[in-house]
Design goal:
heterodimer, A: mainly alpha, 10 helices, B: mainly alpha, 2 domains, rod-shaped
């Protein structure tokens, strides 16, 4: 059975680049641009989750396949899907939780995007109109400049308040959900991989032990197949570690935004988050290889 | 029998998994001493235990996501609020665009150009209808 589709390589790479948190600098309260950078990369990291989650269902199908071959000697797709139906439902719940988290970071990124709050294009249109009213160039530039400043300040003040509200009110929930997803990946998915590994080993060892004397050459090929399966499982286990670290970085990053929401100096925040950016770059490479 | 929580389900899943491993080891260590029937019975029991372990792990996942539901609802509400805020910023920009069109109308009236006035009135009407209420 083929593994689930690979994680989008561009996304994981983009995830690590966008999460270069070492360049953070705050003036006043949380700077929207830094919040936006973190939120964008957190959104992309959570977007990498579905292939990981779907693997939990795929592993059930593989386990049932090994069992069917040993117990009844035959199986088809339908006979594998039935015993895995509850796993499918459970995975759907995990995917739904991740989707909520991803949407939150996506909305936060949009709100915190400095390009989004810029009204320069609209103000530029205003300047062209004002010119026709008889003001000279210097006066038009002054009007446009003042209007740009006032509009940007008004919009910026409004959105900073909304960003602060979201981070302050939702930090507890974000920490709970990322921790919950982390537990599911680090404990339950790992247990799922262990079960599949034991099933594979028992399957191959039983087959080889029963038939080695009659077909010694076939035993060699079967063991090669076993080795390939074990290698795939090991790769998936490594990817579990990588994704757990990604979830930790998302949780810890949001916590740091919460902790520093009223602080004036960003260098402290930047220094604290620098290590996470290096970890996330490494994670992105591992995820690309595994999925 | 009381319902399991996620932690209990995980613990049981691990126990069944470990037991399956011990049975498997016994079966292979004593392969030649066991009859084919005995080996078959042991293997069948191993698969049953592994299946139980798998089912309990699935239960732990479902219980884990159930525990998150309240937080997920709160996060969804916060996301809606942020999306509304984004929409309001878009509305503000729309007001600025309408302001542009109103100025164009003023400039057109100032020039006395009928065609320009008509075009400016149409544009201003098309840009109206913004809801800037809180």
């Amino acid at each position: 059975m083929k593994p689930e589709s690979k994680v989008r390589k561009g996304q994981t790479r983009h995830c690590s680049n966008a999460l270069i948190l070492g360049s953070l600098a705050v003036a006043g309260c949380l700077p929207p641009s830094e919040v936006g950078r973190f939120a964008k990369s957190a959104s992309e990291a959570t977007a990498d989750f579905p292939p990981v989650a779907r693997e939990m269902y795929a592993s059930c199908l593989r386990f049932e396949g090994f069992k069917a071959q040993r117990t009844s000697g035959w199986y088809d797709n339908e006979s594998l899907r039935m015993p895995c139906a509850s796993r499918d439902t459970a995975v759907a719940g995990v995917l739904a939780a991740n989707k909520v988290l991803s949407a939150y970071f996506s909305a936060l990124a949009k709100l915190a995007d400095d390009q989004f709050v810029s009204a320069d294009r609209e103000i530029g249109g205003l300047a062209a109109i004002v010119k026709k009213s008889g003001l000279n160039d210097a006066q038009v530039d002054a009007v446009a400049g003042l209007t740009k400043y006032l509009a940007t300040m008004a919009i910026d003040g409004y959105r900073r308040g909304k960003i602060g509200d979201a981070i302050a009110s939702q930090n507890g929930n974000v920490v709970l959900v990322t921790t919950g997803l982390r537990t599911i990946i680090s404990r339950d998915y790992r247990q799922i991989l262990n079960i599949e590994s034991r099933a594979a080993n028992d399957f191959y060892r039983s087959a080889v032990t029963e038939n080695r004397e009659r077909e010694p050459l076939a035993a060699i090929l079967v063991l090669k197949d076993r080795d390939d399966r074990v290698a795939e499982l090991r790769k998936r286990a490594e990817a579990v570690d990588a994704y757990v670290r990604a979830l930790d970085a998302v949780r810890d990053g949001h916590q740091k935004l919460y902790d520093h929401r009223n602080k004036l100096r960003a260098k402290v925040l930047a220094a604290e988050l620098r290590d996470q950016s290096a970890a996330l770059e490494k994670i992105a490479r591992q995820l690309e290889q595994a999925f | 029998m009381p319902e399991l929580d996620a932690a209990e389900a995980r613990k049981l899943a691990r126990s069944f998994y470990d037991l399956a491993g011990k049975l498997g080891k016994f079966r292979f260590d004593n392969w030649t001493q066991l009859s084919a029937t005995e080996r078959g019975e042991l293997e069948s029991l191993e698969w049953t235990l592994l299946t139980q372990s798998s089912d309990l792990t699935t239960r732990a996942i479902s219980l884990g996501t159930a525990d998150m539901q309240r937080s997920l609802q709160d996060i969804s509400r916060a996301t809606t609020k942020m999306t509304r805020a984004v929409q309001r910023v878009d509305d503000v920009k729309k007001v600025i665009r309408i302001g542009n069109k109103a100025l164009r109308l003023g400039a057109a009236v100032f020039t006395g150009n009928a065609a320009a006035i008509a075009a400016a009135v149409s544009a201003a009407l098309a840009a109206s209808g913004v809801d800037d209420s809180e």
